[in-house]
Amino acid sequence: MLAPSVLSADFAYLQRDIQMLNDSAAHWLHIDIMDGTFVPNISFGLPVCKAIQKHATKPMDVHLMIVNPDQYLRAFQEAGAASISVHYEACTHLHRTVQFIKDLGCKAGVAINPHTPVSLLKDIIKDLDLVCLMSVNPGFGGQKFIENTYNKTTELKNLILQQNSHALIEIDGGVNSQNAIPLLKAGADVLVAGNFVFSSQNPTQTIQELCSQMATLKASKHD
Ligand code: DX5
Ligand code: ZN
User: Fold this and answer.
1) Is the CB of 3 under 6 A from ligand 1?
2) Looking at ligand 1, which atom is closest to the CA of residue 34?
3) Each residue's pLDDT tens digit, 45-56
4) How far is the CA of 223 from the centre of ligand 2 (A)?
5) What percent of the chain has pLDDT over 90?
6) Which strand (E) or helix (H) includes residue 181?
């Protein structure tokens, strides 16, 4: 699946860009929330999320790069989140936070920074619907993909299979047409792409091309 990141949209033409995503082959809309404390950047918050909800026809995949996420979970659910990912590094009582997300009726995700080992998810993996592997240091769009993400993807896939977890693997940061297929081969299920999509000449076509690459790989696996 492909989840274009709205962070790279043109905020002055947000409705136009959401409509473009609605009409495209994209599966989810990835919504990056940054608080200027957990990450060194501020993106946008609840009012913008609610405004996106009014127009979006695809699931909103909310990535919270914020401290104290618990106090905002209900508000993001009400603002349209279908899935909510919190950062492992921002949660002291991660199990409680994950249960809270599920009680709200959202898919529960945990994101881990590039330096955080996959093995730390061992005792929570069965409770998760989604693991977001950060393939850049969170905070900004348009950064360079960190190559060690391939190893982490393979390791996470093995952990998921060992523990019979249904969690999907999402890769976030620096995704492009070069690394998309190797990531899927390593076990990724969802690719986030911001800059690669929105800075291209024709974002709809870029989404279409990424999605058809992914579909071709999937079809070949079933042969
Ligand atoms: C980074 C964000 C990403 C970002 C991805 O902190 O979590 O979702 O928008 O953007 P690109 O694809 O431009 O790296
Ligand atoms: Zn993100």
Assistant:
1) no
2) 6
3) 999 999 999 999
4) 33
5) 97
6) helix 180-186
CA atoms within 13 A on the CB side of 222: 6
Task: Answer yes or no: 172 catalytic.
Answer: yes
Amino acid at 111: A
61 is catalytic: no
User: Could you say which of 17, 61, 129, 172 is catalytic?
Assistant: 172
CA quadruple 126, 129, 134, 135: dihedral, nearest 10: 100
pLDDT given for residue 222 in this prediction: 76
Q: Mind giving me the DSSP string for 104-162?
A: TTSEEEEEE-TTS-GGGGTTTGGG-SEEEEESS-TT-SSPPPPTTHHHHHHHHHHHHHH
What domains does the chain contain, in order, with CATH numbers? Answer: 2-222 (3.20.20.70)
pLDDT of 146 reads: 98
128-178 residue pLDDT tens: 999 999 999 999 999 999 999 999 999 999 999 999 999 999 999 999 999
Average pLDDT over residues 95-111: 98
Q: Is 180 in the pocket of ligand 1 (CB under 6 A)?
A: no
DSSP 63: E
